[in-house]
Amino acid sequence: MSTEVAIRDLGVDDVDALLALYQHLNAGDAPPSPEAVRRVFAHPGLRHFGRFDGAQLIASCNLAVIPNLTRGGRSYGVIENVVTHADHRGQGHGQAVIRHAIAQAWAMDAYKVVLTTSRKDPAVWAFYERCGFSSSDKRAFVIRAPAAG
């Protein structure tokens, strides 16, 4: 690893590196259209963070900060698409990018941050608990769109 490890916001210029990193999250995912990329990066309240080792993107997550009318009008955050390059796992990069996203949510006056995972591996759950998340606070339910017919 180089000595220059940094976390920063990702933008449209980082899409190729981000999509390559996402192959370590969901191998074989179809790439988004250029229009989808533009929509995602233009969406207010949605930020993508990347941890770089020199010029290489090695970990990422995104944070959506959602306006809210409960909790005194304080927003809440949702972290998704947490991924670390397979060659860099177990070195604290994923935890660093998640902690960065959480700090950004607190800076935007969010009252909570939610993260869900489809992973069934207890080691993954323990990782999120080390990042400060609790699995006993809420229960998540998911519904997926029906397959296009």
Oligomeric state: single chain
What is the string of SSEs from the N terminus onward? EHHEEEHEH
Level of helix content? 25-40%
* Number of distinct beta strands: 5
CATH class: Alpha Beta
In the CATH classification, which architecture applies? 3-Layer(aba) Sandwich
Fold-level CATH name: Aminopeptidase
Provide the CATH superfamily. Gcn5-related N-acetyltransferase (GNAT)
Radius of gyration: 16 Å
- What percent of residues are in strands? 15-25%
From the N-terminal CA to the C-terminal CA, the straight-line distance is: 47 Å
- The side-by-side strand order for the widest beta sheet comes to 1-2-3-4-5
Instruction: State the helix count.
Output: 4
Which overall shape is indicated by the principal axes computed on the Cα atoms?
Answer: globular
Mean of all residue-level pLDDT scores: 94
Q: Give start-end ranges of low-pLDDT stretches.
A: none
SS-based structural class?
Answer: alpha+beta
Q: Domain count, please report it.
A: 1
- What's the story with the biggest beta sheet? 5 strands, mixed
InterPro entries: Acyl_CoA_acyltransferase (IPR016181), Bact_Acetyltransf (IPR050832), GNAT_dom (IPR000182)
Protein name: GNAT family N-acetyltransferase
GO molecular function, one term: acyltransferase activity
EC number: 2.3.1.-
